[in-house]
Design a protein that fits this description.
The chain is of the alpha+beta class and 210 residues long. The chain is built from six helices and twelve strands. A seven-stranded antiparallel beta sheet has the order 3-2-6-9-10-5-4. It has a three-stranded antiparallel beta sheet with strand order 1-11-12, with no helix packed on it. Strands 7-8 form a two-stranded antiparallel ribbon.
Length: 210
């Protein structure tokens, strides 16, 4: 298949979205947990979470254009905090269902059967079923003018990961926790490690590390 800019623009809207969303490869699957100022919980799946820095510990994600109600964005802006919760194979169906457009008064936790879990220091809820849970405070919301999306940047202030999955060097073995990946808009995948390699230096080839 070959397609140029004109051909891409001419595709039916949903086909174009499915195609372009597949091009970036495998992406992380996270549930964003938020609460409104009134204490109403909200949960939404995102596939755009990215590492932004380790000191301070920053992560970001991209939210779709705020042309309609975006409960997640509104809650983050109101309270200045949110949680990120890894999706694993056992909760894929419930996690995917959070992308449905429920009205504001309906909590996705209740609608999907997932369980809210109180954070240590935040008002935003975790997903109890998730095995990797991060609590974040909002640093910046940056409009992306080219397509009217919003980049949300937060600092990690809480981490919950099983001790058995964390190596002595701090590396987290996500495979043992069953964390899944997303391709496109709706395809979920288990992972298989190919290699973990030593820090690359120009005077020596990489070596396998455990």
């Amino acid at each position: 298949m070959y397609i140029d800019k004109q051909g891409l623009a001419g595709l039916e809207k949903r086909r174009r979205a499915a195609l372009v969303n597949s091009l970036s490869g495998f992406k992380s699957a996270n549930l964003v947990g938020t609460a409104s100022a009134d204490g109403e919980s909200n949960l939404a799946i995102v596939s755009s979470v990215f590492h932004l820095g380790a000191d301070p510990a920053l992560m970001g994600f991209i939210s779709r254009p705020p042309s309609v109600d975006r409960h997640t964005l509104e809650n983050i802006e109101a309270l200045g905090e949110y949680t990120l919760n890894h999706v694993h194979a056992d909760i894929v169906h419930a996690a995917h269902q959070t992308s449905a457009r429920y009205p504001r008064e309906v909590s996705e936790f209740a609608a999907t059967g997932l369980t809210p879990l109180a954070a240590q220091t935040l008002r935003a809820p975790y997903v109890a079923e998730s095995r990797v849970r991060l609590g974040l405070t909002l640093c910046e919301m940056k409009p992306v003018e080219v397509n009217n999306t919003v980049m949300v940047i937060g600092e990690i202030v809480e981490i919950h990961v099983p001790d058995t999955a964390v190596g002595e060097d701090g590396f987290i073995d996500l495979e043992t926790l069953g964390t899944v990946a997303i391709s496109g808009l709706d395809s979920y995948h288990r992972t298989e490690k190919v290699s973990r390699l030593s820090y690359a230096k120009p005077d020596r080839p990489p070596r396998e590390i455990s």
